Amino acid sequence: MKINDENSGYTWPSRVREYDDIPNRRTSKEESWRKIRERLDQAPKRKNRSWYWLAAASVILFVVILLNMPVHNRTVRPGYVKTPAVLKQDNHAPVTVDTIKAALITPVKSSNPGIKKAYPVPADSLQVAGTKKESVVPLPGDSLFKDVRDTGALADDLAQHPTPLPKVHINDLNNAEPLPAHITIQSLAVKKLIRLFSIDFTKEQPYKKGARHPNQNTIPEESN
Amino acid sequence: MELQELIYEAKKGSQAAEKALFYQLSDKFLSLCMRYVKHEADAEERMSEGFYKFFRSLKSFKYESDGALYKFITSIMVNECITQLRKKRVFNIVAEPMETDAMLEEDVLDKISEAEIHALIRKLPVGARTVFNLNVLEGCRHEEIGRLLGITASASRAQLTRARALLQQSLSILKKDDENQR
What is the tens place of the pLDDT at every residue in A33-49? Predict the structure, then answer.
């Protein structure tokens, strides 16, 4: 048994861990390294996957934008004349109490043939909050304003001939039907996508009854 | 060239640095593999496989110290050896009650050379050798060893006791031979 005086400062486990004297190696280091090198060269190099992630992110972004984009039917009613959309009525004179009074007192014939008389709203009961120059309150002659003045006569007519209001489910409002159980949000989204891609924007689509044009800013006239 | 520089160069893709690392470390880790795997050819194969995996994972390795580097490569090599041994299903270990609680004369081990200790460890049966290597030389707990080898912690303790007893027997024989020679 050999006495090891050289390594007396170390404990035997650490000496065993450090031991690296292999007297008769079966394979030389050169040979071992050559084999490792060959395997390393053959191993497929890891591709830079950042492009894949970027492409995937772009596709997801595209789909999200598409799903959030409003889809228009682009249906055109026969004989429909596009009315210019009024964004802001900056050209009008500022609305004052006098202009509103003048507008309300003037009797206007109702567009509805069933209504004989129009009741002007008493001007004294109105209070105008402010007279901003940028006001977008419609002026006399505007169709919207006309309908507002007709409401008194309409209410009177309804009082004379009361008709019970039809019961409408909340899901039936705006022609929306309640969703059947098998239709999910996902399937609706896919439907929306298919619908978007199937629209030929170069052609004008035929008008469907009940559909409303997106630029339609007036109430459609009822056919007599 | 120091290990840190070699690692830095190898991470940049220098094949010369990789080769230098292999030449510098292969003996040490071949010795480690030989402590676990009895046949030298198998040990060399495990060592080569371990270095191959080390070089493949070098880009993700962050050099902190030489000790950390040794620990990293040691863990790869030990895993390689244990995987090989488990494939051969050598760990069908059942906890055997030892008749005597053998005490290993560690002061005697301190006096003999590392080559002799290395040879004594390699003579141990596979179960006792692996548990002894893992517990005494790598510092693993019995629970960890149990998980690694697929045995219970008590079986691991029993194997360690067995390894100590067998080593003590071998040391006694060596001691007697030495006295006879004198």
Answer: 999 999 888 877 666 77
Regarding an ipTM greater than 0.85, the answer is no
Is-contact B51 A34, C-beta < 8 A?
Answer: no
Q: What pTM value is reported for the model?
A: 0.54
Query: What residues of chain A lie within 8 A of the CB of B178, using their CB?
Result: 1
Joined tokens for residue B71: 């620990």
pLDDT digits 0-9 by tens, A85-117: 555 555 556 666 776 677 666 555 555 555 555
Please give, rounded to a whole number of angstroms, the shortest distance from the CA of B139 to a CA of chain A.
10
Listed in sequence order, the residues at least 6 apart from B10 whose beta carbon sits closer than 8 Å to its beta carbon are: B17, B18, B21, B55, B58
Is B14 an 8 Å CB contact of chain A?
no
Residue A130 is predicted with a pLDDT of: 47
**Spatial separation of the C-alpha atoms in residues A51 and A59, rounded to whole Å:** 12
Give the distance from residue B155's alpha carbon to the nearest chain A alpha carbon, in angstroms.
23
| Interchain contact B180–A (C-beta under 8 A) | no
- Looking at residue A25, its pLDDT comes to 75
Q: How many residues does chain B have?
A: 182
**Distance from C-alpha of B87 to C-alpha of B79, rounded to nearest angstrom:** 12
B30 touches chain A (CB under 8 A): yes
Q: Is B39 on the interface with A (CB under 8 A)?
A: no
Residues contacting B124, CB < 8 A, separation 6+: B132, B163, B166, B167
pLDDT of residue A1: 39
Nearest residue to B58 (alpha-carbon basis) of B12, B97, B3? B12
**Which residues are bridge partners to A75 per DSSP?**
A205
